[in-house]
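Section: protein folds

Sequence with per-residue tokens
===
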Amino acid sequence: MPDGFVIRAATAADADAIDAVVRAAFAGTGFGHQGEADLVRVLEADGDGLVSLVAEADGVIVGHVLFSRMDVEADSAPVSAAGLAPVSVSPAQQGQGVGGKLIRAGLDALREQGAAMSFVLGDEAYYPRFGYSPDLATRFASPFAGPHFMAMMLDSGSPWPLGGRADYAPAFGRLG
């Protein structure tokens, strides 16, 4: 990531700037939909955001990542888990490591909060570099199951559960 960038917790005052970054990041990409910005607002309004971070360069927000609560059961027991969605970087800053820095900082924050797992629905060539595994996700029943559904244990030394279910926060169903 280039010098001069700062990763920090998002605040309520950042909402409009985050909205603009998310909309710009997903415009014309073929990934997701313009509803990603609405999803961020609804997750936050519902109180389901667990970790919301921004990347700032010279006082301007150029990236954002949100991890939201999930309802996960593994091996018949509830598990503290979070879903990554979305990660957004302004088009002019893409390809410079900003998104990766945001994801890593978010995963560290989840570990500090005591979360055990994280899930993502995304590019299977990109997210494994952070520890996400499509093989682990196949053990979980989910409406989002498929080749782009991945999971990771936030403590890499933890054993993988044998099976369970994973449901994203209600906003995903309402806006999906």
Remarks:
- The chain has one domain: 5-175.
- The longest helix spans residues 98-113.
